[in-house]
Amino acid sequence: MSPNLRREIKEVKCNGNEAKVTFHNGSTIEAVVSGEQSRGFRCNILIIDEFRLVSKEVTDRIMRPFLNVNRKPAFTMKPEYEGYPIEENKEIYLSSCYFKADDAYDKFKHYVKSMLRGEDCFVLNTDYKLAIHHGLLSEVRAESMRKEMDEVSWAMEMESLWWGESESAFFKSAEVNPCRTLVKPFYPPTDLEYIDEKDKRNKS
User: Fold this and answer.
1) How far apart are CA 72 and CA 65, in angstroms?
2) 3-state secondary structure string across 91-130
3) pTM of the shown model
4) InterPro entries annotated for this entry (predicted)?
């Protein structure tokens, strides 16, 4: 940590009940769980890490309302700053890619389209090569991981590719996947079960 940043920090708490950094100016960085117990929390910048693991319902009903109150610096109370523009709160979503049938892909597409329309948002998609370029990941480590991961997992986790059918596909994964789980499956009996049931029928 740089000396300048260290001087700005008043207190750091990191235990089983709280993870919080408090700065001398009153600002904080806090980590909270993505669940009902966090309802009512407030912030000005919301960062959801691995957001594909957080359900859309929790994100919309619990996490995004964190941003309902805008930041209002004390200097804006002075007469000379009357009418000073309000700084909008921000949302940041971080995640590896996943299947196209997941809600995360819909959110990804939504923000890509919004960015292309010139709206105030930004989407960045990078693969493992960027981490190698900046020395965060070694080529040896990447190659070792590639040998142990299947093609789909590697594509999603390391190449930042969403996996699934094309936009023009007739059958959608979201419609087909639920049908792949049998509600009442039939399991062939073992040899012993077959003999036992056969003996019961003969006796009856």
Assistant:
1) 17
2) EEEECCCCECCCHHHHHHHHHHHHHHCCCCCCCCCCCHHH
3) 0.75
4) P-loop_NTPase
Which tokens sit at 80?
């000379």
Mean per-residue pLDDT for 106-131?
95
62 Rama sector, left if φ>0, alpha if ψ -120 to 50, beta otherwise = alpha
- End-to-end CA, the chain: 81
**Cα separation, 112 vs 110, whole angstroms:** 6
65-94 pLDDT tens trace: 999 999 888 898 999 998 899 899 999 999
* CA-wise closest residue to 173 among 112, 96, 103: 103
The contacts of residue 73 (CB under 8 Å, 6+ apart) are: none
